[in-house]
Amino acid sequence: MDNLIVQMINENQETLKNNWLDEVNIFKEKELVAASTTMKLSEETDQQFFELLIKHINYHDISKDGTLDQFFDQVLHTGLPLSYLTQGLQAARRVIVNFLVERISDKERLITIYREIDTWLDPILNRVVENSSQIWERTVSIQKTALLELTAPLIPVFQNISVMPLIGSIDTERAKLIMENLLNGVIKYRSEVVLIDITGVPVVDTMVAHHIIQAADAVRLLGSKCILVGIRPEIAQTIVSLGIDLSLFPTKSSLQKGMESALEYTNQKLVSNK
Amino acid sequence: MDIQSCVEVRNEWDIVSARQLGRNMAKELGFGNVDQARITTAISELARNIYLYAGKGKICIEPIDQLGKKGLRIIAIDNGPGIREIRKVMQDGYTTSGGLGAGLPGVKRLMDEFSIESTVDVGTEISATKWLR
Amino acid sequence: MRIPILKLHEYLLITIQVEMDDQTALQFQEDLLNKIHDTGAKGVVIDLTSVDMIDSFIAKVLGDVVRMSKLMGAQVVLTGIQPAVAITLIDLGISMREVSTALDLEQGLDKLRLELEG
After folding, report:
1. CATH topology of domain B5-131
2. Chain B: partners with 3+ C-beta pairs within 8 Å
3. Where in the numbering of this chain does the STAS domain appear (chain C) (predicted)?
């Protein structure tokens, strides 16, 4: 890096900082929700940001030593958007270039400097994007695991009767896990009847209805009777409009009714002790 | 077992050989019961297709490792008549053998990745992969 | 290789314990129908507990056997289908809804008794 330029930048830090802050504030006013805590936090962050940029210019390339990563992590975790970082970097580029253009008249030199500034700032920009997409992927993966862990076990309620309450949204991967749990449970508890309760499934679209029917078909193949309970009006509509034949799977509106049916089917009865 | 293992498919007993090869490899790689069944069934379907439509071909099974992600790949190759309309064949419910065979859509559902290349009068190559969970 | 068919009163019991190749499956179909004819059996239980794979061909043979047996006056129940097998059949799109199923041999016989009496 051009030492004269570095010197020029160091000598004029205050001016550069103020110009940069002006640009950043324009962006903040337009894009950030002006909650006072966020604004206060972000002022301190601005200072840190600028200091890091100066350090970067002086030490040539700090994109690999971890200070930048730490800073970006911190920023993204306080809820400031990714655009704060990318816009901040672009603003820095603009501000420095404008500053230098005003003071250097040699066109050739200016072009070289312009290119150099790109090589200073591009690594940081790349690091920001890489970093934030890693955080994103990590979050998605954690949420995915959490959802998979919500898989409900098959619950043996009475002799020969088990219940599987389905809770939450059911995507293809979760459906596979639920299916395995369900079938292994049927074998383990020797359930003659399985009640699949879908009360806790918020959305039953074509795909979900398909998964539920598949689960019911699989239970039937094993040799158990499957009763679907918790059918809300919207679900009934979806099933009918899909033309699905449920004649092999009785459905009941509530778990209670389904249980009565199951008890009847297995020749059992609840007797009161009064 | 790092290398590909292949079985020539010329008759019905080769279908059984291919299945057993697949099951053994799947077991060795650490696939659970359900995935072992999926892989074995997929191999059976693909081998049967070769036997029914091409007369002869081969099934190759190999363990794969892609950046730490481990799995198993089935490759079914034949120099048969080829498939004229791949899209039609990949549609559920389409069958040319009078109900025999659940068809390629079934194999696709059993496995995690599926690709098919076919040229009329030249042959067909199908590749299907299952990843270790 | 032939699959043994046992007679228990008016029922026929079969436990499939080997990996069936195509010929074995077709031979089994023939043997069963002959036995139904010879014994006049009214009910058949085919136990699949030891079967760890059913592909589309075997599924078709089993489905056919059920239909053919019915034509000859015998009800058939398939028992003991394993979870892994059920899952692969569902993946293949085969739900065999026209076939009666039960968890095990005992429940299979109970089911047959109900069907034949009812």
Report:
1. Heat Shock Protein 90 (3.30.565)
2. C
3. 1-112
